[in-house]
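Collaborator request, handled under Task 6.
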Amino acid sequence: MIKPKTMVIPIESFDVQVESPVDFAYLKRNRMNLDALMEAQRLVDYFRMLNGPTYVNLVKDFWVRLKSTIQRRQYWKRHGLWQGIQA
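Structure tokens returned to the collaborator:
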């Protein structure tokens, strides 16, 4: 089931910032080569997956269907369903 859009924002009107979680090229330029360490710990494929492609249109499609905790809490309060959390 596909959730309905929760925001009336044209997908073309916002940008997705795409960056690498770990910038190995930057680290190498600054004399910190982690290749041997990543290979020894068998993490090369994991970081390749993390630094892999970002599907911008998919991210935007998820974004416009987002329902935040604040929206949910406001809905619950309006309908008498919010009990509150005692700290």
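The cover message to the collaborator said: "Residues 77 and 83 are 8 Å apart (CA to CA). The chain has one domain: 14-78. Please let us know whether this matches your experimental observations."
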